[in-house]
Amino acid sequence: MKTTYISILAFIFISTTAVRAQDNQNEYSSIFNKKSDQKIIHGGYGSFGIGYTTIDNKDAIILNIKGAWVINHKIALGLAGYGFFNNLDKSNQNNTDQYLAGGYGGFYFEPILLHNSPVHLSFPVLVGGGGISTVPNNFWDYTYTFYPNDYDIFFVVEPGVELEFNMVRFFRIALGATYRLTNGVKLEYPGGGPEIALNALDGFNFYMNFKFGKF
């Protein structure tokens, strides 16, 4: 009988310890809110961001929006879209009347490492496609017409890394760097301008994202 009581007590102790350990594992920390007992198995977020990149070896602005489903705090699956233009410097050395603009998007996969730490890492990967076009500075001039080699479509894979800051439970700020790799574009500036490099879109993005949701 004594052995039975000891076994029961031992079982209760082990079960209680396991439950507490599981609770601790699901505790959430942020910079302004260190811990919470709320457990979120599934969540999601929407985000927007702005960044710097280069297009055809020229400085460019890139904007993004993302929407993702977060599974067990550790993996995000969703869709992402990007838009870019490289006319930050109006004096284009190749053709003063043209710049490049376009966009791309696709499926978004993001493993999240140490999610319950106030500062942690994630590793986003985008797989998709997009389009790019030469655009005149006087784009709104109704006399402008596109030519066959003014635009092209491309396939893109873009892996990266983000440093995320849990500001509060529903808001994160991410500083990220990705590398955009495409299958190449075939473009040339209209009016006898030079051809644009096949790998004009390949290169790094550096950006800041603002994420809102349940993580």
Question: What do you see in this structure?
Answer:
It is a single chain. The protein has one helix at residues 2-26; strands at residues 42-55, 58-71, 75-85, 98-113, 119-122, 125-136, 151-168, 171-182, 187-188, 195-196, 203-214. The chain has 215 residues and is mainly beta. The chain has one domain: Porin, CATH 2.40.160.
Q: Which features does this protein show?
A:
elongated; 215 residues; Porin; disordered N terminus; two-stranded antiparallel sheet; mainly beta
**What is the radius of gyration?**
24 Å
Shape: elongated
Uncertain regions spanning at least 5 consecutive residues: 1-26, 91-95
Which CATH C-level class is it? Mainly Beta
Structural class: mainly beta
CATH T-level fold name = Porin
What distance lies between the first and last C-alpha atoms, to the nearest angstrom? 49 Å
How many domains is the backbone divided into?
1
As a percent range, the share of strand residues is: over 45%
Averaged pLDDT, please?
80
Element-by-element helix/strand order: HEEEEEEEEEEE
* Number of DSSP E strands: 11
Number of separate helices: 1
Please give the share of residues in helix: 10-25%
CATH architectural designation: Beta Barrel
| Major sheet summary line | 9 strands, antiparallel
Topology diagram in text:
Layout lengths: L1 H25 L15 E14 L2 E14 L3 E11 L12 E16 L5 E4 L2 E12 L14 E18 L2 E12 L4 E2 L6 E2 L6 E12 L1
Antiparallel strand pairs: 1-2, 1-11, 2-3, 3-4, 4-5, 4-6, 5-7, 6-7, 7-8, 8-11, 9-10
